[in-house]
């Protein structure tokens, strides 16, 4: 045989028969594959970070964080505003009622021109106003309310007006 062929065969069989040389060769091949994979991943990451339209992922995240902070501030101010409105609503006269009646039952005098009107807030603070109408005059009475009652004596019509106004609050 040819001396070149014999030498190549000799070295080839020596490489395959020596476990250390085989391991080094295998590790070199694995390193080349891993280097190629690292290059592939680094290109993908750089494309991801670079983003579309020259907007980087980092800038997008910073912008989103700023938007979240603005929303938190807006939520806090809206919560404060709603708490303020709730406190103001509790003190407003939202319960109202009007009861018309004839103070002179049976005589026909006055008709249903008289009334009792109640104006109360959620805590029962307010006023009840009564008007008594007759041919000769009109009398108007106002009584303060606290916790849906008054220190003054209330007529049945005034009590009914307070009861109806209280029912409208719920």
Strand order of the largest sheet: 1-2-3-4
Based on secondary structure, the structural category is alpha+beta
Element pattern in H and E: HHHEEEEH
Helices, by number, come to 4
Q: How many distinct domains?
A: 3
Average pLDDT rating: 84
- Apparent shape: rod-shaped
Please state roughly what percent of the residues sit in beta strands, choosing from under 5%, 5-15%, 15-25%, 25-35%, 35-45% or over 45%. 15-25%
Spatial extent as radius of gyration: 46 Å
Distance between the termini: 112 Å
Count the strands?
4
Q: Report low-confidence residues grouped into runs of 5 or more.
A: none
Q: What profile does the largest beta sheet have?
A: 4 strands, antiparallel
Share of helix, binned: 55-70%
InterPro entries: DUF4446 (IPR027981)
Transmembrane segments: 20-42
Keywords: Membrane, Transmembrane, Transmembrane helix
Protein name: DUF4446 domain-containing protein
Would you spell out the secondary-structure blueprint of this structure?
Blueprint: H1 3-17, H2 19-50, H3 57-90, E1 95-101, E2 114-120, E3 126-133, E4 138-145, H4 156-169
Antiparallel strand pairs: 1-2, 2-3, 3-4
Structural notes for this entry:
- With 170 residues, the protein is α+β, with helices and mostly antiparallel strands.
- The protein folds into three domains: 4-50; 51-90; 95-169, no CATH class.
- The chain has four helices and four strands.
- The protein has helices at residues 3-17, 19-50, 57-90, 156-169, and strands at residues 95-101, 114-120, 126-133, 138-145.
- A four-stranded antiparallel β-sheet has the order 1-2-3-4, with helices on one face.
- The protein starts with a helix and ends with a helix.
């Amino acid at each position: 045989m040819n001396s070149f062929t014999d030498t190549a065969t000799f070295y080839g069989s020596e490489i395959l028969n020596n476990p250390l040389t085989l391991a080094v060769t295998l590790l070199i091949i694995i390193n080349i594959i891993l280097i190629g994979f690292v290059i592939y991943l680094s290109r993908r990451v750089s494309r991801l970070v670079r983003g579309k339209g020259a907007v980087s992922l980092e800038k997008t995240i910073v912008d989103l964080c700023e938007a979240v902070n603005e929303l938190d501030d807006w939520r806090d101010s809206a919560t404060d505003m709603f708490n303020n409105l709730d406190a103001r609503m509790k003190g407003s006269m939202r319960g109202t009622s009007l009861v018309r009646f004839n103070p002179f039952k049976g005589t026909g005098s006055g008709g249903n021109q008289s009334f009792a009107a109640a104006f109360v807030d959620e805590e029962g603070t307010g006023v009840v106003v009564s008007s008594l109408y007759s041919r000769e005059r009109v009398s108007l009475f106002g009584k303060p309310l606290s916790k849906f009652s008054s220190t003054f004596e209330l007529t049945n019509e005034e009590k009914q007006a307070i009861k109806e106004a209280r029912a409208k609050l719920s």
